């Protein structure tokens, strides 16, 4: 555990991708089996410790510390594992146990009974130092958050044998921790592991955000455009294994399997003998619902029949990666698209349709379509922007340059006044990074600010420091973790807030809720009195309504 | 006399009405008593200033000789009468010249401790607990997650990294007054005897420490010509210099930061620190609690920092305690005000 903890600690502070890669590769090269395999499993999210719930950790620390002091500390540190690791009191006697190894932790947790778990965990925590405790708690609660993706960890493994990381992806889904055959293969001591999986994940191709100057160099004739749907990017794969069993799997864009969350989709697409890249959406009566609606399904822990009826999910296909065992990824997009259209028509499955192409001849025309995606029919509110794909490009994993572009709809922008601030969590913990902001309205007692939303990102680290300093210097009241910040006509901070949409809501006093609000600029130059009024937002909401009413 | 008759909170800071003076005022006042030279406590523009000789000298270095209408030196332990009040300065162990100020009248003694620490520091006189009725404590690290490790271990981690990356310069952010000089002294104690490089903004105060007989070994100011020579060297700079163009001249630097805040990962990551060193000039949680017990005060006033936790702790031990909620001090002390203005070097 100590070596693994030291690795996590270093990785957590290392910002450079190449340095992270070197640290990982060094670890995989020098740590023994099965320790390194479990480390790889931890980095790729392949371990889960169902029994080790945060509740157990909370109970252990509650037995050992004052609850008020723990609450204040947790509020400050913003991370349960780290708070417990730092506050964990030294045991009254020197611990009897040696610090556990990573494999001991993984193997014990796989078999230990629920009732034995808390005391075992406490003994481990007694035996470890602060960094070891932090690493153990991070590991078992499944939130390493050290800036290492599964892809990066696999790249490090690949580097041991001078392989391309995609080689690892190809065999990955047939393997299990602690990956002894995988290490043997990359180190040239064993055969290539055979992927038994008839429905493997294929690394996803991603787009760059298009910039204004790109339009000067790109030729519209080289590109195909389609709507960028506001759901979650998925890959659905169905295939038959050697014994004739059909497997159907749904993956997120990072290769995480989400089959169990969407049995309705998987059942409908069972046996298609293909791999489809698409967008998962909630579709009711043929209409794609907004991301807000999809989120209501995503947020539920258990999948119930009621939920599946209420939030029916479907896949809108962008691309065809494989069919009947043939890998289509090397083909140009135009050809894959033709095959996709034929496939979707022929398959005739429920819960699968085609993401339509947006016809255009020049960038101006496309810009117009993007501004009024009503052309997309009844589903305009689920359009997030436009995707541009080179007609001649193969399907390449990762984010290759100059091939795919995303062109999002312009966000709405409003000037609002900072009213309350709360400390953040994770990376931003201990800084005042969650901001409640308001706009002016005429209330019973005259002009007043009314909160219209909350934002906790969009600003740079430097701006965060500036706002944090402002909050601390201009606190007028405190409510637990929340500080009320000065917000008067001529004293306060104006925030330019960008957001994607507006809806009626009972959550805020204003009766409005913003979708995806973020701080786009700090307006130190602007006195609060010049911030926007609620009428501006009301107008926007009314305009949206009219837009929709005029749609076919 | 009630404690609040002796010392009260005003917009300018702690005020002693019977003596007609403020302690560490945040705006200009006719008469100020100053605990130590950090710029959130020691500001320019007061009428008369009473402080230790070292603190007065530091204020002179920072603000120029005319920083106050008049000045008076307070010797440690010496009783000084101001109106109906007797005041005494006692060592606080925070930085060179730092003092607690005991204010006494009508049989009531309040100690304003300013900033203090209990951990060993070769560059200043150690903290001395003073028995009192009311103890005013800072609470910069007033949460039980802040347990500062042994500073010698932290310095060893720095030196281990220097050995591991001999081709890289180790840039250590440290506050210009106190932390920088303490860190150099600790490096010497740990056996690091090569030259230690300093950013130009640290020069005046480091020279001052040297002039007061603090042994820091060979100090070199970083100049443009040193780029290559700095591989494997320790370079001390103000925290603000870690992120500016100044730092880009060094060969593939390792960014370190010596601060009590480095105990919390998010803080270190936020600043892009690769080698966090938990070295603080403030008392940690255990030392705050221990000090409150040692001074034996029945009433505790808690200021700048995490007041709530310490107030709760006091209450759980039957001590009367209240937060002062004073504005204008280092607060959660990310950067000492004025620290960033050091001349580029």
3D architecture notes:
By secondary structure, chain A is an alpha+beta fold. Chain A has three domains: 2-141, DNA ligase i, domain 1 (Orthogonal Bundle), CATH 1.10.3260; 208-408, D-amino Acid Aminotransferase, Chain A, domain 1, CATH 3.30.470; 412-543, Beta Barrel (OB fold (Dihydrolipoamide Acetyltransferase, E2P)), CATH 2.40.50. Chain A is 37% helix and 24% strand. Chain A contains 20 helices and 20 strands. In chain A, the strands form four sheets. In chain A, strands 3, 4, 5, 6, 7, 8 and 9 form a seven-stranded mixed β-sheet that branches. In chain A, strands 12, 13, 14, 15, 16, 17 and 20 form a seven-stranded antiparallel β-sheet that branches. Chain A has a four-stranded mixed β-sheet with strand order 1-11-10-2, with no helix packed on it. The longest helix of chain A has 17 residues, at 534-550. The N and C termini of chain A lie far apart (62 Å). Chain B is built from eight helices and 19 strands. Residues 331-345 of chain B have low confidence and may be disordered.
| Proportion of strand residues of chain A | 15-25%
**On the 0-100 scale, what is the average pLDDT of chain A?**
87
Spatial order of the strands forming the largest sheet of chain B: 7-8-9-10-11-18-19
Shape of chain A: globular
Task: Compute the CA-based radius of gyration of chain B.
Answer: 20 Å
Biggest interface, residues from each chain? A-B, 33 and 29 residues
Oligomer: heterodimer
From the alpha-carbon coordinates, what is the Rg of chain A to the nearest angstrom? 26 Å
């Amino acid at each position: 555990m100590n070596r693994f903890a030291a690795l996590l600690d270093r990785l957590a502070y290392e910002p450079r991708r190449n340095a992270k890669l070197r640290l990982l590769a060094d670890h995989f090269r020098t740590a023994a089996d099965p320790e390194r395999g479990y480390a790889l499993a931890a980095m790729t999210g392949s371990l889960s410790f169902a029994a080790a719930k945060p509740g157990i950790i909370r109970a252990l620390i509650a037995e050992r510390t004052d609850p008020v002091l723990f609450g204040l500390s947790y509020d400050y540190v913003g991370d349960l594992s780290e708070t417990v690791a730092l506050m964990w009191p030294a045991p009254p006697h020197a611990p009897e146990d040696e610090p556990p190894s990573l494999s001991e932790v993984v193997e014990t947790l796989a078999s230990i009974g629920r009732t034995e778990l808390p005391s075992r965990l406490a003994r481990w925590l007694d035996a470890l130092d602060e960094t070891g405790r932090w690493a153990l708690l991070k590991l078992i609660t499944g939130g390493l958050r050290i800036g290492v993706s599964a892809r990066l960890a696999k790249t490090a493994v690949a580097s041991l044998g001078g392989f391309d990381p995609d080689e690892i992806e190809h065999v990955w889904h047939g393997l299990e921790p602690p990956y002894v055959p995988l290490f043997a293969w990359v180190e040239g001591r064993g055969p290539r592991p055979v992927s038994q999986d008839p429905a493997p994940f294929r690394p996803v191709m991603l787009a760059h955000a298009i910039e204004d100057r790109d339009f000067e160099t790109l030729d519209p004739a080289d590109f195909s455009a389609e709507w960028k749907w506001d759901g979650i990017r998925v890959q659905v794969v169905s295939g038959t294994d050697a014994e004739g069993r059909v497997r159907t799997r749904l993956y997120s864009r990072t290769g995480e399997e989400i089959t169990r969350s969407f049995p309705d989709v998987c059942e409908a697409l069972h046996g298609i003998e293909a791999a489809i890249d698409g967008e998962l959406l909630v579709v009711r009566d043929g209409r794609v619902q907004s991301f807000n609606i999809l989120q209501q399904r995503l947020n539920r822990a258990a999948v119930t029949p009621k939920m599946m009826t209420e939030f029916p999910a479907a896949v809108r296909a962008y691309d065809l990666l494989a069919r009947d065992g043939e890998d289509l990824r090397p083909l140009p997009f135009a050809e894959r698209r033709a095959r996709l259209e034929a496939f979707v028509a022929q398959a005739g499955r429920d819960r699968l349709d085609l993401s339509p192409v947006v016809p255009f001849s020049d960038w101006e025309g496309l810009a117009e379509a993007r501004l009024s995606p009503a052309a997309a029919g009844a589903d305009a509110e689920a359009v997030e922007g436009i995707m541009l794909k080179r007609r001649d490009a193969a399907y390449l994993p990762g984010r290759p340059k100059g091939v795919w572009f995303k062109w999002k709809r312009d966000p709405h922008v409003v000037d609002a006044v900072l009213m309350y601030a709360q400390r953040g969590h994770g990376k931003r913990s201990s800084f005042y990074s969650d901001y409640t902001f308001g706009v002016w309205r005429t209330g019973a007692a005259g002009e007043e600010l009314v909160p219209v939303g909350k934002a906790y990102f969009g600003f740079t680290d430097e701006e965060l420091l500036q706002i944090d300093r402002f909050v601390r210097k201009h606190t007028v009241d405190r409510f637990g973790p929340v500080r009320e910040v000065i917000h008067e006509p001529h004293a306060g901070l104006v925030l330019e807030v960008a957001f994607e949409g507006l809806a009626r809501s009972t959550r805020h006093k204003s009766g409005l809720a913003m979708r995806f609000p973020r701080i786009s600029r700090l307006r130190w130059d602007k006195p609060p009195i010049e911030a926007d009024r609620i009428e501006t937002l009301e107008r926007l909401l009314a305009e949206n309504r009219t837009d929709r009413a005029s749609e076919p | 006399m009630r404690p609040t008759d002796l010392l009260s909170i005003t917009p300018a800071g702690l005020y002693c009405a019977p003596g007609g003076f403020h302690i560490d005022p945040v705006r200009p006042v006719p008469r100020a008593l100053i605990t130590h030279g950090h710029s959130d406590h020691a500001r320019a523009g007061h009428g008369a200033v009473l402080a230790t000789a070292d603190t007065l000298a530091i204020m002179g270095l920072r603000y120029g000789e005319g920083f106050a209408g008049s000045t008076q030196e307070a010797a440690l332990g010496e009783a000084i009468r101001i109106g109906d009040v007797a005041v005494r300065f006692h060592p606080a162990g925070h930085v060179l010249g730092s003092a607690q100020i005991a204010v006494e009248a009508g049989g009531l003694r309040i100690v304003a401790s300013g900033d203090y620490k209990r951990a060993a520091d070769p560059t200043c006189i150690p903290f001395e607990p003073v028995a009192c009725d009311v103890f005013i404590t800072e609470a910069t690290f007033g949460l039980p997650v802040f347990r500062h490790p042994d500073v010698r271990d932290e310095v060893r981690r720095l030196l281990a990294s220097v050995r591991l990356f001999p081709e890289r310069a180790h840039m250590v952010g440290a506050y210009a007054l106190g932390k920088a000089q303490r860190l150099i002294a600790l490096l010497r104690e740990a056996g690091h005897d090569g030259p230690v490089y300093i950013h130009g903004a640290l020069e005046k105060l480091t020279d001052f420490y040297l002039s007061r007989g603090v042994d820091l070994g060979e100090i070199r100011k970083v100049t443009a010509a040193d780029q290559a020579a700095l591989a494997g060297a320790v370079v001390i700079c103000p925290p603000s210099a870690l992120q500016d163009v100044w730092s880009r001249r060094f060969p593939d630097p390792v960014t370190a930061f010596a601060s009590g805040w480095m105990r919390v990962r998010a803080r270190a990551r936020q600043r892009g620190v690769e080698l966090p060193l938990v070295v603080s000039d403030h008392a940690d949680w255990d030392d705050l609690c221990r000090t409150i017990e040692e001074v034996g005060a029945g009433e505790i006033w808690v200021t700048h920092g995490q007041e709530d936790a310490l107030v709760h702790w006091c209450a759980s031990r039957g001590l009367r305690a209240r937060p002062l909620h004073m504005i204008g001090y280092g607060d959660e002390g990310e950067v000492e005000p004025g620290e960033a203005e050091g001349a580029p070097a």
